[in-house]
Amino acid sequence: MISNRKLEHLLICKNYDVEFKDKTTGFEDIELVHNALPEVDKNEIDLSTSVFGKKLDSPLFITAITGGHPASKDINKQLAIAAEQNNIALGVGSQRAACEHPELADTYSVVRENAPDCLLVGNIGAPQLNLSNKAVEILDADILAIHLNPLQESIQPEGDLDARGYLDLISKITDLVDIPVMAKETGCGISAETAKQLADAGVSFIDVEGAGGTSWAAVETYRSDDKYYGELFWDWGIPTAISTAEVVNTVDVPVISSGGIRTGLEAAKAIALGADSVGMALPFLKKSISQEDLNQFIKKFNDSLRIAMFLVGANNIEELKQSKLVISGKTKQWLEDRGINTRNYSRR
What we know:
By secondary structure, this protein is of the alpha/beta class. The chain has helices at residues 2-15, 72-86, 96-100, 106-114, 132-139, 150-155, 166-176, 192-200, 216-223, 228-232, 240-248, 264-273, 282-287, 291-312, 317-320, 329-337, 343-346, and strands spanning 30-32, 49-51, 54-56, 60-62, 89-91, 120-125, 143-148, 181-185, 205-207, 255-258, 277-280, 325-327. It has one domain (2-346): Aldolase class I (TIM Barrel). It is built from 17 helices and twelve strands. An eight-stranded parallel barrel has the order 4-5-6-7-8-9-10-11, surrounded by six helices. The protein has a two-stranded antiparallel ribbon with strand order 1-12. Strands 2-3 form a two-stranded antiparallel ribbon. Strand 8, helix 8 and strand 9 (205-207) form a beta-alpha-beta unit.
């Protein structure tokens, strides 16, 4: 049953090492250019941003984590309270389970109950065209995310291996629902070419969710009796920094940079690359012990982002997006091989 699979995913992510082994996010190749004369009052730096008409206190998204099993209800409640108290965005895990099994709906609806003013992101797969409006209704979502997870599907025993027609389904979902639609990967990143296809299909937001954070091949490896394929593809994907740069240099839609981002400094690098927001999931799952832990984690994230902005002389997120940075190493090589002039970032 899908509910049991959700519980397995939750327990594995919470208790096992599911992050990439050798591949990194690429942010170690990104250096913000220090400004010794920032001419900024750190205490007045504005982290706020607006997403589809909602003003948020920080560009941080708690991206899709869980739902669909009774054990996930308390976690979603904790995350919702933290998101509401800190005025940041929150996404939920795939809602297919609740759409097909109404008794599981409260594992998602608990979010809006505890976060009445929060920007909430629903979640379905491309094949669930007929469930899209139901998913929006259950969550009272502001945005509907469509998750793209071909690697996970190819590794898990019960995976859907026929991906024909997905782009057409995504286009139909954008027409069917009355709220903006986001396309999001699940740990393998989005290329420039895929981003263009998604934007042309009517997607209003792209979450790159690149390689370097949680590996869903790893998660499925722990579930499988045959470890060969999961271990072989454990590190598959486009590193997050690279995917972010590819997408922002290709399409004119807001971009979330996520996948292995763990600090406000990494978030600052992602935004300077051109991202509008940043997302994290696994750290919040690991921290979901108490409300105090969650709030403290968010506070440290915001404080470290503010310090990075102070050190480059950025008063707000828009100024941070124009900060100078230098790209080196494998990230530079990849981007230049793909036709992106990395010098444009250092000569702003």
